[in-house]
Amino acid sequence: MLVQPYLFFEGRCEEAAEFYKRALNAEVTMLMRFKEAPPPQSPPPEGACAPAAGTEEKIMHMAMRIGETTVMLSDGRCQGKPNFQGFSLSVTAPDVAAADRIFNALADGGQVLMPLGETFYSPRFGMVADRFGVSWMVIVLAPEGHK
Predict the structure, then answer these.
(1) Which pLDDT tens digit goes with each residue over 18-69?
(2) Architecture of domain 84-147 in CATH?
(3) pTM, full prediction
(4) What are the boundaries of each domain within the chain?
(5) What are the residue boundaries of the PhnB-like domain, all occurrences included (predicted)?
(6) Domain 1-79, what architecture?
């Protein structure tokens, strides 16, 4: 079984992708715009909704590789501010320097929720909500015997 995050940016997906490319060295592996979708069925399946007029260039589906993980993104229905509540994405950095760089990049334009620092369980751990409201935890795994 594979569980992957799917984030809906309500019209800011392309901006978010560019941010994550810079902040996390992310790579877009698949991108489909609404205008590339086949014409809707008639009648549409129950629960389906057509994208709003003027959203043809918006992102219907994107897959982005961040490290070893694929995160999926979309502009969704472009209905306003995205709502990212009740979860965080966790990034395991290979070392303290990488954690510092990643945390600071994600914090640019965002909000630090817990400053990055040493804890009893990690040489570096911190929490930040990025400029889009996505919550991130950045951690360096403690070496064996760390106290």
Answers:
(1) 999 999 999 999 999 988 988 766 666 665 555 667 788 899 999 999 999 9
(2) 2-Layer Sandwich (3.30)
(3) 0.87
(4) 1-79, 84-147
(5) 4-139
(6) Roll (3.10)
